[in-house]
Structures are given as C-alpha cells and as structure tokens.
Amino acid sequence: MNVLVLGPQGAGKGTQAARIAVDFEIPHVSTGDMFRAAIAAGTALGRRVEPILSAGELVPDALTVELIRERLAEPDAGAGFVLDGFPRTLSQADALDEMLDQIDRSLDMVLFFDLPDDVAIERLAGRAAEEGRADDEPEAIARRLAIYHEQTEPVVEHYRATGLLVPLHAERTVDEVYAEISDAIAQLEARHA
Ligand code: ADP
Question: 139-153: per-residue pLDDT in tens?
C-alpha cells in the first residue's frame, strides 16, 4: 500500500502516519524526521538544512527529491510506504509521479487532513511548549503556514483531480481520525479484492 498524508502543520499527519505504518508494516517516511535526524547527526546534509528548518523555509526541491528517491529505493519500501511531508510543492509532486512511474508503482490513496489555521496555530503552540522544536516559534509557524497555503495547497488540488484524495476531519481526536482512515483503507481493500 502506497499512501500519502497531506495537510497543514499541526493537523496530526505524523501521528496518524506512524500508526498506519505499524498496522500495515510499511515504513513511515517523513522528510521532516529525516532532516531532523541529519541535523542531530551533524552530517553535511544536516549542516546544510539546519538554518532552513529553523526559519520555517522549504529545503530546495532538488535536495528533497533526491532524499526521497534514495529512501523509496530501499528494500523495506518494497512493501509500500506512508509518505509524510512530501510532496510539498507541485514540482515535488511531479517528481514523485515520475519516480513511481519509473519503478512501475502508483499511489493508492492520499489522505488529506483538513484543519483551519487558528486550530493549527493553537496546536503548534502546544507542541512548542512540549517538544521545543526550533521551528515551532511563532515566526517560523506563521512562515510554514504561509508556505503551506502558497505551495502545498496546489498539491492537494493536484491529487484531488486524480480521484485519490480522501478528506478527513482533522479537528477530531486521534482515535476518531484513525477510525476514518481505517474505513477508507477497508474500502480501498474491498475494491481491490
Ligand atoms: P511541519 O509539517 O510541521 O512543518 P515537518 O517535520 O514536515 O514539519 O517539516 C519540517 C521542516 O522540514 C519544514 O519546515 C521544511 O523546512 C523541511 N521539509 C520537510 N519536508 C520538506 C519538503 N518536502 N520539501 C522541502 N522542505 C521540507
């Protein structure tokens, strides 16, 4: 099963993606986690992207696309993947479509976590207090949400046009949202059965 999770910051994508990964035994591929791991490990990639993440800006497409290309080529992704935080721009979406085409694979569904900005901001402020992520400072939060509306919303429309988009009510509790996801996956499996 090849799944994408899309939606604004604070919508709960990471939490739900991790749960799907465990239940379906597929890797949770999060570009944000990969960049943060590189920063923590002090690699060349980490040093390059650290100031970008702190400012809430986007890492250049070429770098991000390469990271994903390598990650999806790893053996564990053969069974599928749940992709979180990528694609975030139309050019990344085009690159992903092309990448999957080349390896003769396709997406099964795109989960869209819909959440109003005021709720997103409130949730991120809470996360900032708990986790102390550098990009959960108010200025970086505002920047990330602005970039989301400008660059990532067109990606949502791109996938809506393919018919793969599954809109979710991201304001509900973690369990309620996961129940919606489980239903969507069950429907998908019934169609393929
Ligand atoms: P959030 O969705 O809360 O912003 P993520 O963990 O998904 O958090 O991403 C953190 C940061 O990592 C982003 O603000 C950006 O700097 C970088 N990043 C993650 N994914 C991408 C991507 N697909 N393209 C460019 N930059 C990315």
Answer: 889 999 999 999 999
